[in-house]
Amino acid sequence: MTEKPFTSCVQHLFKHLTYEQMAEESGGTRSASWWRHVQLEQTDRFNPPPPKDLPGIAKLFGATEEQVAAMIAHEFYGITRFPNLRSERERRFAKDLNSLSDEDADLVLRLVKSLSHKVDVEQNGQAS
């Protein structure tokens, strides 16, 4: 396995942060020494981060916990395919939703919540 997404992310961060800063900015999830070994591609010397460390690493990477989990699964366990947990509707809307400004995304969210509330009311026989 030649792809190392987790290590690549750490190597990119190392251009801007010290190992100590990585340890600190990840909330102390891993030691400076651990980050050094990852950056030097010596991950076989250590266990992968446990799930409890994902929030801190995600914060450091500027990624979601799911993205970090996928990097770890790929690099440490060789898992490259993951089930898509999104519904067909979510997959259809995702690209367009992600291209919206924050202000427009908030407006769409309010609209969706308003429409879903109407559906709930109508299903309960309380339509106005």
Tags for this model:
mainly alpha
Give a verbal description of the structure.
This protein has 128 residues and is mainly alpha-helical. Helices cover 62% and strands 0% of the residues. The chain is built from seven helices and no strands. Helix 2 crosses helix 3 and helix 4 packs across helix 5. The longest helix has 22 residues. The radius of gyration is 20 Å and the shape is elongated. The mean pLDDT is 85.
How would you briefly describe this protein structure?
This protein has 128 residues and is mostly helical.
Taking all residues together, what is the mean pLDDT? Answer: 85
- Which outline best applies? elongated
Spans of 5+ residues with little confidence (pLDDT < 50)?
A: none
Give the SSE order as H and E letters.
Answer: HHHHHHH
Radius of gyration over C-alpha positions, nearest whole angstrom: 20 Å
Find the structural class using helix and strand composition: mainly alpha
Span between termini: 60 Å
Helix percent reads: 55-70%
Number of helices: 7
Main pleated-sheet profile = none
Q: How do the helices and strands line up, and which of them pair or pack?
A:
Layout: H1 5-14, H2 19-25, H3 32-39, H4 54-61, H5 65-77, H6 88-98, H7 102-123
